[in-house]
Every structure is written in structure tokens, then in C-alpha cells.
């Protein structure tokens, strides 16, 4: 086993972390869907520790970047409807950010209004951004299955890759988004610093993350869907805001965030044995309740930060 890593947000040494949850991995149960987003939870996890300095919960001996890249490359894709619901909720949540971006622009229109999404899936959110007036959008997505499932028109926006700063022009985006993906990357600090460099001055970085301190996640404990083999770290209000400020972003704010999904999807997240959960979902569908859309606060948190404008703090 490799030696434990430093905290990937504040760089505190392993001695400043205390155990959060013991490792629980059953290799026989690892499937192609283990690394897909919005899949049915399996309640497996890496050894997790809690940083006493910044409050991050993280896997202190995670798999290497190569191993992660392979897992995502092989992962399947099965969540088009949920991805669509999520994109609508994200779009609604970032309206104040879009308004502030527009207010900042000088009198004449800029040559382009550009956005990047890290972990773009089928590019459904990028389509909303185009509708909102962005004329250059790009999505990075490591899963070829997700890109293959995208409509042809969106595939041109998508790049099959793990996010790397050097693939993009510095200071070339007004908005960078990353939804439910910061938990998956091996080095979230590196991603945040790279995003800061890719933003134009006055540009915004927006993420949605799971909040391990949210009441629903504290209540469910190790049966929470956030306790999962795919998660290299889990944020809290303090640790996500620290990630942003350490990366040089300013006016950093975070708040809890409600998702709107079909009841059938919510039922998949219930901490029930597989057979019981399947029976429950069948019953919902038989009653015609499965597709019913409901909004719940399930312990997600939206965080926004800005690249400073020259001459402003
Ligand atoms: Zn830390």
C-alpha cells in the first residue's frame, strides 16, 4: 500500500487527519457502472479520513490517476433522463451568476461568450448554455459511452478526455462549470487552480458537490449514497470554499442546493437492500408514480467563485 496522501485541498499532512470511515471494497461487486454518475449506490468506499484543518473528507490512499482514467473509460452510461433533470436544476441555480456575468460585460458585445464544463456527460447542460447566449461551449468528458449517447449536434462540443489545463487557452472562458465531478478527480486543488487560470478576469467557476455535513448525509451515515467507491473526496461548506480561495478565486460563496428528479430515481438512492428497492420502484411505476418529478434538498451544495478583475480585490 502506498503512503497516505496529504489533504488535496489544504495540503495538511496525514497526521492532521483522523479516520472517518474504514475501507469497504468488494472486488467481486465492482461493475462497469461503479464509476458512472447517478448510478444505483453500492455502499462501497475507500478508506476515508477527515482533515482537521479544512474539514475535507478524503480517500488517503486512492487509486492512481491511470487506474482512475481506465475505470472511467470503461464505465457505462445509463442516465439520460436524470442528466436532463439535473441540467435544468443547475441552469436555474446559476441564474444569478449569469446575470452578474452579463452586468460585467462592457457596452459592446464581446467577440464570444465562452463556457467550459468539466464532466459534461452528454453535453445536455451545454445546450442550455447555448440557449442562454453562450456562443462557444466546450465539455470535457472521460466516458466514451456518454459521448456516444449524445446527439450528433452536441458531440462537436465534447472532448473525450480527463480535464487538463494545457488543452485550453489561458484566460479564455467566462464561465467554467463542474457538477458532481469534483469528488471524482484525484487532485481537486490542481483542477481549481487550472480553472482559475482558464477564466477571463471577472469570469466565474461554479461547482455542485455533495456536502457530507448536510443533515441527510449525517443521518444516513455510511448508508448515504455519497459514501461511494467513486468518491476520492467529500466536501463540506468550509472545505469547498477553502478549495476556491486557495486557488485564488474571490467573492467565494456556497449554499445548499435542491435537485429535481423523478420519484423513480429518488427511490434508487434509498438505503434498502437491492431486491426490496427494485420491488419498491416497480410498485411506484405500477401506480404511475415513477415519473413524478419532485424537488428535494439531498445535501448538495453549490459554490461560486470569481477570477479577480484587475485592480479589484
Ligand atoms: Zn485539509
UniProtKB/TrEMBL annotation:
<keyword id="KW-0808">Transferase</keyword>
<dbReference type="GO" id="GO:0008168">
    <property type="term" value="F:methyltransferase activity"/>
</dbReference>
<dbReference type="Pfam" id="PF13489">
    <property type="entry name" value="Methyltransf_23"/>
</dbReference>
<protein>
    <submittedName>
        <fullName>Class I SAM-dependent methyltransferase</fullName>
        <ecNumber>2.1.1.-</ecNumber>
    </submittedName>
</protein>
<dbReference type="GO" id="GO:0032259">
    <property type="term" value="P:methylation"/>
</dbReference>
<dbReference type="InterPro" id="IPR029063">
    <property type="entry name" value="SAM-dependent_MTases_sf"/>
</dbReference>
<keyword id="KW-0489">Methyltransferase</keyword>
Amino acid at each position: 500500500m502506498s503512503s497516505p496522501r496529504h489533504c488535496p485541498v489544504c495540503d495538511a499532512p496525514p497526521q492532521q487527519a483522523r479516520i472517518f470511515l474504514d475501507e469497504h471494497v468488494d472486488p467481486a461487486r465492482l461493475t462497469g457502472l461503479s464509476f458512472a454518475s447517478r448510478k444505483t449506490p453500492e455502499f462501497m468506499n475507500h478508506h476515508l479520513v477527515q482533515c482537521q484543518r479544512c474539514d475535507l473528507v478524503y480517500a488517503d490512499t486512492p487509486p492512481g490517476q491511470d487506474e482512475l482514467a481506465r475505470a472511467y473509460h470503461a464505465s457505462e452510461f445509463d442516465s439520460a433522463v436524470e442528466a436532463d433533470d439535473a441540467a435544468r436544476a443547475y441552469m436555474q441555480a446559476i441564474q444569478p451568476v449569469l446575470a452578474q456575468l452579463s452586468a460585467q460585460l462592457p457596452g459592446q458585445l464581446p467577440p464570444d461568450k465562452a463556457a467550459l464544463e468539466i464532466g459534461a456527460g452528454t453535453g445536455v447542460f451545454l445546450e442550455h448554455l447555448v440557449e442562454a447566449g453562450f456562443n462557444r461551449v466546450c465539455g470535457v468528458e472521460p466516458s466514451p459511452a456518454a459521448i456516444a449517447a449524445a446527439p450528433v449536434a452536441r458531440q462537436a462540443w465534447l472532448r473525450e478526455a480527463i480535464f487538463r489545463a494545457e488543452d485550453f487557452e489561458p484566460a479564455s472562458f467566462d464561465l467554467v462549470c463542474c457538477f458532481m465531478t469534483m469528488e471524482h478527480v484525484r487532485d481537486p486543488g490542481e483542477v481549481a487552480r487550472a480553472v482559475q487560470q482558464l477564466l477571463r478576469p471577472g469570469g466565474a467557476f461554479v461547482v455542485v458537490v455533495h456536502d457530507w455535513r448536510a443533515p441527510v448525509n449525517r443521518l444516513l451515515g455510511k448508508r448515504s449514497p455519497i459514501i461511494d467507491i467513486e468518491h476520492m473526496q467529500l466536501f463540506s461548506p468550509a472545505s469547498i470554499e477553502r478549495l476556491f480561495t486557495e486557488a485564488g478565486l474571490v467573492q467565494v460563496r456556497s449554499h445548499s442546493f435542491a435537485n429535481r428528479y423523478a420519484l423513480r430515481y429518488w427511490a434508487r438512492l434509498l438505503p434498502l437492500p437491492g431486491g426490496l428497492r427494485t420491488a419498491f420502484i416497480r410498485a411506484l411505476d405500477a401506480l404511475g408514480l415513477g415519473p413524478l418529478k419532485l424537488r428535494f434538498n439531498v445535501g448538495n451544495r453549490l459554490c461560486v467563485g470569481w477570477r479577480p478583475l484587475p485592480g479589484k480585490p
